[in-house]
Structures are given as structure tokens and as C-alpha cells.
What does this fold into?
Amino acid sequence: MTAQTMEELVSLCKRRGFLFQSNDIYGGIKGLYDYGPMGVEFKNNLKQAWWKSMVYERDDTEGLDASILSSPVVLKHSGHEDTFTDPLVDCRACKSRWRADQLFENNKCPNCKSEDLTEPRPFNLMFKTAIGPVDDGSSFAYLRPETCQQIFTNFKNILDSTSRTVPFGIAQMGKAFRNEITPRNFIFRVREFEQMELEFFVKPGTDDEWHEYWINKRIEWWVNQGIKKENLKKIEVEKNELAHYSKRTVDINYVFPHGEEELEGVANRTDFDLGSHTKNQKDFKITSEVMKNSSSTTKLAVQDLEEKKWYIPYVIEPSAGVDRGVLALLNEAYREENVDKDSKRILLSLKPHLSPIKAAVIPLKKNNEELVNLSKEIKSNLQKLGLGRVVLENSGNIGKNYRRHDEIGTPICLTVDFETLEDKSVTVRDRDTMKQERVSIENLSEYYKKYFN
Ligand code: GAP
It folds into this structure.
């Protein structure tokens, strides 16, 4: 089962500290959200899982964490200054503004139904900010609209500082910003979000094969994070809808509560980016329509040792949205169950590696010094194992604690009761089955490590 509506997820996220509207106490700003105590743990766990599979578990990738403020010249040559636009239409009657593709009803304003609309005009989605103390428009930067451009501009730095040869990839996670005209559907379309992007550089001619490889690899990864395969769809982007850099793109769509939409895109960006940012473009046989006349000081090319000539690699790019991943996984994990005939519970059946809290240690009585001290010791020992956050719940209300931890997806709760003082064992309760078992404190570390590994 998943959530039935987006409202169920929004409500759980606010109630349990996953997500809050940003600037809430001043009325909020549309398209911006803050991750609360549970949200930040969950999001970090998701990003860590991605990093682990893209960097640590591979022998052909490197990581990067580049600046967010981006030079206009980079975004000129990437094509963003000219093409990163949405067509906008203004309603002359009610002064509202719409994306042209959102005028679903025969070119009428969705707000007041007037037909007195302007012609569509391009609107650039990038945020601009002044660099330096004088804001006279002469020195500015953009907040990056995608994380990958700095991967391309660092291509040579990374080649020179590692011993990589093609095929290899560079991974980066981090913030991206888009001035979306109509942010909507909770954290699905927002103005400040995070991406997890890999740029995988390959020899031209091997690109189609690598593209297929990455499409399948990425679907497999989402399934390993807990998304049912039948809720993921492979969608071939129509030729006339491809981004200016793409030879072929396959979207991995997910059935969100508001409908099926893109979770991740896997594009074959050809030699467009490295070609556009390269010095002396005419020296290379570039196959795509690159941005011409690059003022770059560096050639972003590699040498073919067999053919003894330089070439510009092609790029395969799996690009996933962290926030869309968070939304999809919360939705997938959401369950409502009857506990008995009078009560029901909500639980997040998250994979343990993604759960914000790995275990809660609960003394049966909050004012009992012996129980509380022993609980603190157990908590501290489990925390030292370094598998994620462990908490002490010292409210003395076991039932309430179980409900709360079911709702935030804590895989196990450990109760320290009076018997514990005698038999040196705790009660371990499993979130999904609600089954309880006694585990001796001596064996707890082993039990815990086994559970999470
Ligand atoms: N470098 C390629 C690129 O940025 P994209 O399809 O525009 O491609 C990649 O974005 C991913 O980033 C999307 O699949 C989506 O998950 C996420 N994303 C894009 N715009 C977003 C937005 N406004 N809010 C949340 N996530 C977004």
C-alpha cells in the first residue's frame, strides 16, 4: 500500500518533523521547503546510499563538490542563458501569469477564464545574484540550475589529479535552483532542490551501450531503495522534446500521489558539454551542435592511445532529484493498518538503511534512575557503532513511543524494563511485524550490526 493522497504525506511530514514550509512564521514562500529533524536524517541517508553505489562501490568514478555560484560564461556555453526558458503567457484581465502549456482549456486563463492573453514569451528560469560589493549589473553570477556544469568545467582538473582514463565518471550531489513559474505538488516541483548527478564519460561509438547500462542500473538502484518495480516506468522522451544537448533521453517515471511524473532522467549528452567548454573547438571532430567560440583556456579532450589522436568523450548522465526521491520513498513506505478492531496505526515501512532513526531505546519508567542510566549506556554503545542515529526516549509512555517510531519508520525499539535488571536482556520490537523478542545486552551489538548490514 502507498499513501492514498498527497495530503496524507504532507500531514505526516509536518506532524513528525520531516518537512516544513520554508519561512513558515512569515507566511511562507512558494516552492521552498525546510527539512526538519527526521527529514534531514532521511535525506542524508538517501544521498549516502547514492554516493555509496556511485562512488564507493565502483572502480571507475570520482566525486566532486563544486561551487553553487556559477559564472555566466559557463552557463552561456552550456546553452542555459539562451535556452533554459519556459514560455509564459500573461492574462490581461486578471494580471495572472501562466506557463503556456498550462492553459489546458482552449487558451483561456485558468483563473478568470478570460481569452485576453498575451503571446507566449520566453522566461529564463535561472536566479541571478550580484558578485562583489557593487550591484550595478556588471558582475553577477547565477545560482546553478543543474549540478553538472561544474563537473564538465573540472573535467581536466580531475583527469590531471587522478589516473582515470575513459570510460569513467564524476559524481556530484548538491543544490540546484530554478525559478519555476508554478511550483507545486509539495516537494515535487520546487525552486530550490537537490540533485544527484553522475557524468559518465565514454568513447563515442560506445555511448548507446553505456546509455542502456545506466538506465537499467538506475532502475535497479531505486528498487533497492524500496520502490516497487511496477511503480517505475521507463519513458522514451520524444525527439521534439529532447533538451538541446541530448541525443536520447529516457525518463524514469514514478507514480506519485498526484500522478505519474519524472523521478530521474538518463540522457546521452554526447560531446555537447565538453565540446562547448573546450578551447580551439575547430581542432576536434565534434559531432553535436555545440555552443561555438568558447573562450575556455583548456581543451576538454582525451587521447586515444591506439589511434594516437585527441577526441572529446561523450557523456551519459543519470540525473536524479533528491527531493523527488524523498517524496517517492515516503509514499512507497506509507501504510495504514488496523492494530485491533478499535485502533489503527500509520507506519513508514522504510528500508532500515534509509530510516531517519535506526533504534529507539526506551526505559519503561522515566523517573527510575537505574533503568534510565542503563538505557543511556545502551543508546551510547549502539550509537558508537556508527550506523546512524539512535535515540533515547525518556517519556515513560511505551505505547505513544511505539506509535511515534512507527510513523517515522524506526525499524526497532528496545525497551529496558525491570526484568532487564535481573536477566540483563531487553525487549526488541520490530516495526513491521510488531513482534517482540528478548535479546541479551551482551549480544546486542552483534544483533544490531547484523540487522543493519
Ligand atoms: N543535468 C540534467 C538535468 O538537470 P533535469 O531533467 O532538468 O535534468 C534532473 O533534472 C532531475 O532533477 C529531475 O529528474 C528531477 O528529479 C529533478 N528536478 C528538476 N527540476 C526540479 C524541481 N523544480 N524541483 C524538484 N526536482 C527537480
In short: The mean pLDDT is 95.
